[in-house]
UniProtKB/TrEMBL annotation:
SUPFAM superfamilies tied to this protein: lambda repressor-like DNA-binding domains (SSF47413), Periplasmic binding protein-like I (SSF53822)
Keywords of the record: DNA-binding, Transcription, Transcription regulation
Domain HTH lacI-type residues, every copy: 6-60
PROSITE patterns reported in the protein's UniProt record: HTH_LACI_1 (PS00356), HTH_LACI_2 (PS50932)
Gene3D superfamilies: 3.40.50.2300, lambda repressor-like DNA-binding domains
Protein source organism: Actinoplanes sandaracinus
Record protein name field: LacI family DNA-binding transcriptional regulator
Database matches in Pfam families: LacI (PF00356), Peripla_BP_3 (PF13377)
MF annotations from Gene Ontology: DNA binding
Amino acid sequence: MSRKRPTIRDVAREAGVSYATVSRVLNGRDWVSPESVKAVRDAISRTGYTANPHARSLATGKSGSIAFLLTEPQHLLFEDPNFSVLLRGVAQALSDRELTLILMIASTPVERSRAVAYLSGGHVDGVLLVSPHSGDPLLRQLVQAEVPIVACGQVLGFEDTISSVSADDWGGGRSAVEHLLAQGCRRIATITGPQDTFGGVYRLRGYTDALTAAGITVDPDYVVHGDWSRESGAAGMRTLLDRAPDVDAVFAASDAMAAAALPVLREAGREVPGDVRVVGFDDSGLAATTEPPLTTVRHPLERISDEMVRLLTDVIAGRTPLSITVPTSLVVRGSSPA
């Protein structure tokens, strides 16, 4: 005969407190003494009590689930190492808080429509928004539905309404170009990220500000736009070699684009770093595996993922939207040695 599943009343009896006190501890209420919290937790351990998630959801109005919403094509989740690092960090941070992760991808109109219906239907307590693009109708729909959101990177046009955790994209872009200038480079090109994303805009701004501060006019022929992907990095490098064959350095706004630029330069007979220096952005696992290894700006995704989850719990609790910026650092390797 199976043993009866322990109940809240069993925990209360074991802890020597009231049913209401156990309920408050389980639901994370603040007005319980530390002694009572310890007594309840010890009793839970001794009795083997586990909460019924369905009953708790009905009682608290919370699902205990958080959505990780990626607004990029599905294949990028596996091709771009940044997304997997961020997802892994978020999963651990949520697990530490006994919250469930729900992975959602919404890159097409149909996927966006389904995502909005699901997320605004009370199935999750909040959303961790990854790679948001300004002008995406999904953003306004989620805000209007009053879904708690924290974005990875500020959301252009929603800076005051959507909380975010960002790398210092401007500072990182500027430090990459300042490094190239310090090595004597003067014909510095860039392959940007998407210009409807905060990272794409501010990494480019860091590039232009560093050149301007050095007294170098920004030449439009030295600027091509990419979308973070390898394909756009290779295409961008070919365009740069056609437009500006005298280029002596390239700052690519992602490691994937920088890595794809390397074989294009080799095919064109340009040695790295002898003829052209290359700097990326991310310091993903990819950066150390290229030939030569990439000098790059470190994107602190582990810290960003933890901060996103921490901030989302604050937003869910009703706190005012807030933006956090995490510092970056330059990692020097063979593609542009010091």
